[in-house]
Write a structure and sequence with these properties.
- The structure is a single chain.
- By secondary structure, this protein is an alpha/beta fold.
- It has one domain: Aldolase class I (TIM Barrel).
- Helix content is about 30%, strand content about 20%.
- The protein is built from 7 helices and 10 strands.
- The strands form 2 sheets. Strands 1-2-3-4-5-6-7-8 form an 8-stranded parallel beta barrel, surrounded by 4 helices. A two-stranded antiparallel sheet has the order 9-10.
- Strand 2, helix 2 and strand 3 form a beta-alpha-beta unit.
- It is globular and about 40 Å long.
Length: about 200
Amino acid sequence: MIVKVCGITSVEDALMAVDFGADALGFVFWPGSPRFIDPFRARLVVARLPPLVGVVGVFVDQPADYVNGVAALAHLTAVQLHGGEDPAYAAAMTRPVIKAVNGAAAGEAGWPDPVTLLVDAHDLEKRGGTGRLADWSEAARVARSRRVLLAGGLTADNIKSAVAQVRPFGVDVSSGVESSPGIKDRNRMAAFFKVVRP
């Protein structure tokens, strides 16, 4: 199972996540997020990562040219779309696409199979990293027919139950391993990975 740690804002937190076993790291390029990181700063962090770690950029309704430009600048391996983007927008991306959905409409959204769906708690203001649980039953329904990443309020205390119920392709954690938005906590991260990478 893939484990992505999102909301990375520093080299130290990036390397800590990788040391614990993260397969991918997420960098938020939407200025409305408390976990926002400047693309040039993100590029410096990415330059310090081992070569096989996935690098995902998170965007919210930003121009496609901008997203593709940041993807090239920061050497992203995928882009994660958290706004109202549609399949036509996704088709304009130069990197593989992860599309955040709230679960209920995921099966009817018409997303092509190459797009990985990320089931998260629905929040039109914060978009992600809210600490609120996604709908696990809906996530499980979607995961039965396609590749799904599960996000939304995952912590060391609930990740085992979440994985057992949803059986996702991967999980995406942010607030559950933080001391404050954008600042990762070593103890919380250690506890989380002790469950997902026993």
